[in-house]
Structure formats: C-alpha cells, structure tokens
Fold:
Amino acid sequence: MNNLSKNFIKKSACALLVSAMAFSAWAISLSDAKQQGLVGEMPNGYLGLVVDNAEAKSLVASVNKKRKSIYMNLARKNKITMQQVTVLAGKKSLAKTQSGHLIKNASGQWVKK
Structure:
C-alpha cells in the first residue's frame, strides 16, 4: 500500500469517527429529555411526547419500539394480553417516575409528579 492510500484510509477513518461522535452528541438521552420536560410517562406503559422536538420525537419512537417488543414477549411468555401488560407497565412506570418529571394523568393532561 502506498503512502497516498494509507493517508486516505487514516483520514476517512478519522472523519467517520468524528461524525459518529458528533451524532451521539446530538442525540438526547431519556434522562435528559425527562429532566427538560420534553417527554413523560403515560398510563399505557409508553413514553409520550410533551414538546414537539425532533430529537425528543426520535427518542420517543425508539424507546416505544423497544418497550413494545418487551411487552409482546412478556404477554406471550405469561399468556396474557398486550393490554394487560401495558396497563401493568403503565402503573409501574408512573410509580417509578421521579418527582418533578412529567406524567399524563387520567384526563390526558401532562402534570409534574
């Protein structure tokens, strides 16, 4: 391999690493999103979008996709319905929500716990 090829590979690898690091710096964590009031827990066991924000919307979609997969496996394993799982998960997530974070109440309003 000549020096030009080696140099190109090094620069490409560095550029890829920097862009991966920059992307992860843009992504918001679940904890940060809850702290900032962008998202909150809902009684149906899923995460809800409180503020229409692109990062928060992406986070909600990602978290809810993972939760749905977990809920489906739990329902199958325990021979219960998805609705039963989501009701139980909702109660648990609302109970575990930190004080000051947002939850959706029975009337559909976002309130601080």
About this structure: Residues 54-78 form the longest helix (25 residues). Residues 28-112 form one domain. Confidence is low (pLDDT under 50) at residues 5-25. The two ends are 62 Å apart (CA to CA).
